[in-house]
Every structure is written in structure tokens, then in C-alpha cells.
Automatic annotation (TrEMBL):
Keywords attached to this entry: Membrane, Transmembrane, Transmembrane helix
Origin species: Streptomyces nitrosporeus
Keyword Transmembrane helix: yes
Protein name: Bile acid:sodium symporter family protein
Gene Ontology CC annotation, any one: membrane
Transmembrane segments: 21-43, 49-66, 78-102, 108-128, 135-156, 201-225, 231-254, 291-312
Compartment list: Membrane
InterPro entries: BilAc:Na_symport/Acr3, Bilac:Na_transpt, Na+/solute_symporter_sf
Highest rank taxon of the organism: Bacteria
Bilayer topology term: Multi-pass membrane protein
Pfam families in alphabetical order: SBF
Keyword field contains Transmembrane: yes
Amino acid sequence: MQNEQITPDQPGSDDKAARRAVTVFPVLVLAAGAAGLLAPGTFAGWGGSVPYLLGVVMFCMGLTMTPLDFKGVAQRPWAVAIGLVAHYVIMPGLGWVIAHALGLPPQLAAGVILVGCAPSGTASNVVTFLARGDVALSVSVATVSTVLAPLITPPLTLLLAGTYLPVDAGSMVEDILKTVLLPVVGGLVVRLVAGRAVDRILGFMPWLSSLAIAAIVCAVVAGSAGTIKSAAFTVLVAVVLHNGLGLALGYGAGKLTRLGGPASRAMAFEVGMQNSGLAASLATAHFSPLAALPAAVFSVWHNISGALVAAWMAHRARREDQACAARAAGGPAAGAAGAGQP
């Protein structure tokens, strides 16, 4: 659900639309997962459609992109580079550590690691907006991490998950090119050629992406319904740890490199939120439906946690802005008077 360029200064209608999207999306995906679990026979045959559904998601992402997204990369290469390094170091590393610490079986361990090796999540821009973060930086990092995924995700997966299961990195590169890069480029080209027509349907794109991701989750859950009950709690613990530590360390990376408050909030979501649709597709194609289960759970959880963390960050940012405004209006005396306030 990658958004157009949005900033916290835009009118409230954008804020309401974004809040509605991140509220409805987890509910929709959760309902799809429940359908796959309760009626696996109905949806088990959907497994072969997962790469095509992911292609729809990435094509919609491409439609929302403009040359300004790439211009932002050129204007702030250092900040974007920090975001990319943090994303592709922290999340893969966390996936490997968590898989070892929890003693996960090979299929689930490979699935958790693959989620960590995926590019940034497609909803990270919306959640950054809600958190009053640096949306331009968020869009830039998400865009570049997606474009570089064919070069980074397969070798990282081979390095970290190869001890659990055989990994065909070359075939994985081909799959990412076909299901991620080509659809994104195709959507961008269509936007450039038929921009006015695309502008009229942009509001529908997040919902089409949401439906496609929900269908992916439904297919993944249906494919491994028989083993979910025994593995569900362990997978949930792994996902919550992976996502929560990713959000915290992403924010810390922004603070450590002195990017500032808004950019640090963007970094939290660009590190902690993953393209779980891609991870589910690759796990299904290269490992098994069970290996795709962590990606399916991550798809639900990271949107719930992202919305909650964004609300907390936005509340803190507003309080800080009010405190700064009060100090500016009252001078040093006002600042001293307000020092004891909670």
C-alpha cells in the first residue's frame, strides 16, 4: 500500500484515509487467514496464484510512484544509504538470531529468515505519515530497497537460511525479477504514459493491493492448515520479536546517525516492516507452504503493531512540538516554569 508523496502538513482527509487503510487492512488479512484455516480445501488450490497476486501488488505500487521518488534518493543519498544498510543488516540478522534462539524447525526457520531478507513493507509509507515521520525518506528507502531486492534478497537468504534448507539463489533472483521488479517498472511506465487516467483510480490502488495480499495470506494458510495449530504460537512469538526489535533498532539507527526525529521515525518503519507478500511467495515457491507461514503472520502483525507505534510516536511528536512552541513564545522563563510538567 505504498502511498503518493504525503506529508503531515496535508489536510485531515488524507490522515483519515490513511488511518482507515491501516485499520481495515489487518482486519481484512486476518479474516482471509481465518478463512484459509477454517476451509483449507476451498483455498488450497490458490497456491499457484500467489506469484501473480504479488505481481498485482507490485504493479499497484509502481502506479503510485513518480520520478519525484527517485529524485528524493539523489537529494539525500546519505540518509537513504543509512536506511538501506539498516534494513538489510538488522532484519536478516534478527531473523537468523531469532530462528536459532527459539530452536525453530528448518522450514519455519527458513521462513523467518526469508521475511527478514525481504525489502521494505508496502504499507511503511502510510504508517510513517501517521507517525508524523519523514515520508519522503520513507518512500525513497522503500523504493530503492524494492529495486535492489533481486540483488540482495537471494544471496542473503542463501547465506543465512542455507544451513536449514537448500536455497537456489539463481532461481530466486529470476522470481523476484518477474514478480517484483517487472511489475513495479510496468506500473511506473503506465503512470508516466497515462498519468491523468491513473490519477483518477489511485485511490482504489491501496484496496486492490490489500485484497491481493489477503488472498496470498489465505492461500498460504490453507496450504499449511494441518500444521498451523501446533506451530502457531511459536511462529507468533518469532514474528512479534522480529517486528518489535526491528522497529526499535530501526529507530535507534536513525538516532545513532543523527538523522533527526522525523527521519528516525521513518527509519523505524522502513526497517521493521517487511514485504511479507514477497516473502510468502518466495517461501511457497522455493521451500514449502509451512515456510510461508511466518510471512503470513507477519503480514497481519506488522500492520497492527505499525499502526499502534505510529499513534504513540505521533502523540509524542505533538507534545514535543507544543513544548517547543511554548518555549518559543514564553522564552527561557516559560521553559523553566514548564520543566517540572509531566
